[in-house]
């Protein structure tokens, strides 16, 4: 976690994000209150949110992984060509979530969910 602290001190006020396992995400948000994790909710809203995120982030960002599905525990399954499947959540600082929030809230498919998404993001 010392490397994480060093990175955030050098890049303060810069959008920082990643896709990590649930346990790493929990550690990240405990270490730095400026960070939070995004778990994709279940049901129709979760499916729609997942599809919007999937359409906004190219596979190349995740090392060529195929973004497969949203899971009941809020994780997203990625299928990597070299190591196979991994379940991860998005984690980022407030600067990153402001960017993500703008992308998601401006998507017409999610317009009727704005108040719920505002709380989630």
Please provide a written account of the structure.
This protein is α+β, with helices and mostly antiparallel strands and 121 residues long. It has one domain. The chain is built from 5 helices and 5 strands, in the order αβαβαβββαα. Strands 1, 2, 3, 4 and 5 form a 5-stranded antiparallel β-sheet that branches. A hairpin with a 5-residue loop joins strand 3 and strand 4 (76-80). The longest helix has 14 residues, at 43-56. It is globular and about 40 Å long. The two termini are 24 Å apart. The mean pLDDT is 79.
Name the structural class. Answer: alpha+beta
Helix content: 40-55%
Q: Which outline best applies?
A: globular
Please count the beta strands (DSSP E, at least 2 residues each).
5
The biggest sheet, with number of strands, parallel, antiparallel or mixed sense and barrel status, is:
5 strands, antiparallel
Number of domains: 1
Q: Helix count, per DSSP?
A: 5
> Which blocks of ≥5 consecutive residues have pLDDT under 50?
none
SSE pattern, N- to C-terminal: HEHEHEEEHH
- Measured on Cα atoms, how large is the radius of gyration? 14 Å
Mean pLDDT: 79
Sheet-strand content, in percent, reads 15-25%
Distance between the termini: 24 Å
**Oligomeric organization of the protein chains:** single chain
What's the short story on this structure?
The protein is of the alpha+beta class and 121 residues long.
Keywords:
121 residues; alpha+beta; 5-stranded antiparallel beta sheet; 5 strands
List the helices and strands and how they pair.
Blueprint: H1 2-10, E1 17-20, H2 22-31, E2 35-38, H3 43-56, E3 66-70, E4 76-80, E5 84-93, H4 94-105, H5 114-120
Antiparallel strand pairs: 1-5, 2-5, 3-4, 4-5
């Amino acid at each position: 976690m010392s490397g994480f602290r060093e990175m955030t001190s050098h890049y303060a006020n810069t959008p920082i994000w990643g896709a990590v396992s649930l346990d790493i995400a929990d550690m990240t948000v405990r270490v730095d209150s400026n960070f939070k994790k995004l778990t994709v909710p279940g049901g129709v809203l979760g499916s729609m949110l997942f599809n919007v995120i999937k359409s906004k982030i190219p596979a190349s960002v995740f090392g060529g992984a195929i973004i497969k599905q949203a899971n009941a525990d809020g994780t997203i399954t990625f299928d990597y060509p070299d190591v196979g499947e991994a379940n991860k959540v998005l984690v980022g600082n407030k600067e990153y979530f402001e960017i993500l929030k703008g992308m998601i809230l401006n998507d017409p498919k999610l317009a009727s969910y704005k108040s719920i998404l505002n709380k989630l993001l």
